[in-house]
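To the wet lab folks,

You asked to see what we're planning to order before we commit. Fair enough. Below is the target structure as tokens, and below that is the sequence we designed to fit it. If anything looks off to you, flag it before the synthesis order goes out.
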């Protein structure tokens, strides 16, 4: 297939799968069709990303669509987490099908929104144009919002509306930033992808109006930062993550937040090249990242709901990624590695939290104990995911956090390093206390036991093995992909 075929296939494959799911007459068949659509899209995305690594960027649509090293890396992570979460959805909703609580209409709605969200996030990543990227983010907001209330209840509906309202305001800010960047290109000639194409903006950075670019980047940072969940813009995130079904929470935390952060990374080198001050925009990212780590640490210590706890870990780790992205090329490399590590770890954490919530009948950590005995796969996976999230060695997050800390010290960013160390220390102690209490102790009388099925064991052991492997060895192809992606975020000198 030529370049255009690969990119269009990534965007369009979810549609026939959604159509097939709408015709099927049992919830289980609907879920399997959705899973098959995701796996087919993931296979195409991985092949296309491998082609980018070996032969360079793919382009289509007259320059409006492209897949380069940065977008290919994010697309690979997106489809990996989506594939794992789709397989977990078969386990999670299988329990509801057996209990009779997942009706055919709800299953069809879930499948359509699930596949639509995948297409929307993919559009963000393969867009060469700033305006088209914004359209993808807006589509992501609309499609994912109603995944929160697959089962409409008072709390899930409240979380849905809070997500819609806050993120819609954020997306409106991002729209203003997009308009300001468009206004700064008055002297830039039209070309492939329009004046808002990434390549053309970087090539013409000297012709952009610096003041307008600065204002535009500030609007984009606040707008997309709201969707990322950076503090103090994170108000929607704990409610949405805690009320959504566990497979949806895994997608939200595992990658949707990174979709918005990807948009910031795309504008970062443009802002710094146009203003002529390398480090101006990066310092803003450092500020938001450090604040997010500290704020999340304060909330993590006081949480009692398991899924809300994992949600605040998202605020912490997206803050760490933002902090790394603001530290120059070495920091960007570490931040991208942390993106993969966090996605795998958070998907594993929400898988285990969701299934244990079904077995215990609650997500209140004060009522969850003895999970290692009651459900060895999910209990062991939850304990391992907590150890990885707090940066315990030899898990991969320890390595990427160490690289980010080293980048901060080498750059002389003392405040960023201190904020990172203070937040990470508080999180280590607070989250470890919760993990120990849930893993051991006496199994509550109402809790059900579960022997691991082959699929359950694979969904736990697969991400766990990857986190252990990446903690001691980064394969050559992955290192090359990370280095190529980091080059695209660094502002041209």
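Sequence we intend to order:
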């Amino acid at each position: 297939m030529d370049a255009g075929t690969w990119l269009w296939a990534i965007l369009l494959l979810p549609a026939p799968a959604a159509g097939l799911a709408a015709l099927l007459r049992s919830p289980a068949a609907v879920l399997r069709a959705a899973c098959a659509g995701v796996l087919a899209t993931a296979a195409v995305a991985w092949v296309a990303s491998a082609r980018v690594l070996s032969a360079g960027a793919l382009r289509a649509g007259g320059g409006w669509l492209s897949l380069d090293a940065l977008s290919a890396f994010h697309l690979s992570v997106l489809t990996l987490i989506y594939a794992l979460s789709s397989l977990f959805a078969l386990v999670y909703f299988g329990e509801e099908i057996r209990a009779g609580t997942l009706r055919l209409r709800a299953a069809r709605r879930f499948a359509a929104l699930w596949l639509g969200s995948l297409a929307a996030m993919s559009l963000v990543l393969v867009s060469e144009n700033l305006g088209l990227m914004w359209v993808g983010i807006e589509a992501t907001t609309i499609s994912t919002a109603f995944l929160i209330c697959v089962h409409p209840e008072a709390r899930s509906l409240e979380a849905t509306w809070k997500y819609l309202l806050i993120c819609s305001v954020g997306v409106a800010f991002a729209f203003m930033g997009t308009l300001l960047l468009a206004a700064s290109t008055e002297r830039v000639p039209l070309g492939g992808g329009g004046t808002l194409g990434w390549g053309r903006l970087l090539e013409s950075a000297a012709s952009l109006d610096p003041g307008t670019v600065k204002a535009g980047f500030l609007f984009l940072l606040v707008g997309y930062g709201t969707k990322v969940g950076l503090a103090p813009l994170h108000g929607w995130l704990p409610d949405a993550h805690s009320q959504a079904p566990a497979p949806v929470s895994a997608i939200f935390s595992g990658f949707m937040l990174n979709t918005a952060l990807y948009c910031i990374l795309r504008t970062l080198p443009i802002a710094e090249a146009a203003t002529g001050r390398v480090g101006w925009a990066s310092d803003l990212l450092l500020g938001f990242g450090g604040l997010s780590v500290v704020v999340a640490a304060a909330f993590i210590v006081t949480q009692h709901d398991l899924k809300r706890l994992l949600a605040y870990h998202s605020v912490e780790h997206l803050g760490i990624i933002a902090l790394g992205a603001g530290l120059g090329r070495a920091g960007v490399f570490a931040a991208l590695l942390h993106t993969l590590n966090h996605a795998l770890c958070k998907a594993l954490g929400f898988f285990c939290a969701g299934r244990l919530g079904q077995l215990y009948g609650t997500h209140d950590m004060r009522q969850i104990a003895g999970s290692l005995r009651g459900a060895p796969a999910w209990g062991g996976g939850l304990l391992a995911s907590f150890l990885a999230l707090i940066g315990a060695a030899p898990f991969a997050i320890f390595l990427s956090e160490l690289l980010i800390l080293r980048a901060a010290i080498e750059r002389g960013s003392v405040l960023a390093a201190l904020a990172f160390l203070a937040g990470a220390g508080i999180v280590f102690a607070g989250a470890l206390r919760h993990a120990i209490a849930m893993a051991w102790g006496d199994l509550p009388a109402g809790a059900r036991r579960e022997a691991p099925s082959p699929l359950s064991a694979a969904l736990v052991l697969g991400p766990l093995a990857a986190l252990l492997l990446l903690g001691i060895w980064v394969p050559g192809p992955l290192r090359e992909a990370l280095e190529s992606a980091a080059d695209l975020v660094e502002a041209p000198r």
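Structural context that might help your review: The first strand starts at residue 58 and ends at 60. The CA atoms of residues 129 and 194 lie 7 Å apart.

Thanks,
Computational group
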